[in-house]
Design brief:
- With 211 residues, the protein is α/β, with parallel strands linked by helices.
- The chain has one domain.
- The protein is 28% helix and 20% strand.
- Strands 4-3-6-5-7 form a five-stranded parallel beta sheet, with helices on both faces.
- Helix 1 packs across helix 4, helix 3 runs antiparallel to helix 4 and helix 4 packs antiparallel against helix 5.
């Protein structure tokens, strides 16, 4: 387990932000991918245990977090990697399928994920969209992210969007490993909240029970 911090009077792991009993930091191996992954994290997400942007930083090799505060300007050079095309993942972007007949080399792509509420993500998009290519994925179905009420049909969490991108690139092993981390995080958080029956139901349809 990583160091502990005290949030709202509760001792939590500094890594996964869960109570020490439910810490998942060392449960699974990290996710290796040639894709450079960056997350623009709204400052309100910084200490929320439900932030999947923080989950990405913790489990994806080389992933980076960049804090966002409205009114504090950022420049592309602070995020963009030389030699890679910067993609900004957003539902209102250019469909992935129209970019090329075959997916581009992920080693030449950097993806910027916007992590916050839907309104916060829209705010962040307006600031950074001139920096790169806005790309969307054909993601459908209902989110498996049960920790926030705003999730629903067609509304996926930041980490679920990244899983979709990995699969679109054909990086299925990385996508499957990231899904294990994600679903373990959801399950452990439900247990930490005392929602035993909901956690058991979630586990029944999850690949983590066989991991």
């Amino acid at each position: 387990m990583a160091r502990s911090v005290v949030l709202a009077g509760t001792v939590r792991c500094e890594g996964c932000l869960l109570p020490p009993r439910w810490c998942v930091c060392r449960a699974l191996g990290t996710v290796a991918t040639p894709l450079q992954v960056d997350v623009l994290l709204h400052h309100r997400e910084q200490w929320r245990p439900t932030s999947t942007g923080k989950l990405i930083q913790r489990v994806v090799d080389g992933a980076r977090i960049h804090d966002y505060r409205r009114g504090v300007p950022r420049v592309p050079v602070s995020i963009a990697e030389p030699g890679r095309e910067l993609w900004i993942l957003h539902p209102r972007g250019e469909p992935f399928a129209t970019i090329a007949a075959t997916p581009p080399d992920p080693a030449r792509v950097q993806v910027l994920l916007l992590d916050g509420s839907w309104n916060e993500a829209g705010q962040m998009l307006r600031e950074v969209e001139p920096w790169g290519r806005r790309v969307s994925l054909p993601l459908g179905g209902t989110s498996r992210y049960l920790l926030r009420e705003q999730q629903g049909e067609g509304r996926l969490s930041t980490v679920e969007a990244l899983m979709g991108l990995l699969d679109a690139f054909g990086l299925h092993a990385a996508g499957a490993q990231l899904r294990l981390h994600f679903e373990l995080h959801v399950y452990a958080t439900l247990r930490a909240r005392g929602h035993k029956s909901q956690a058991a139901e979630y586990l029944g349809g999850s690949p983590i029970k066989d991991a």
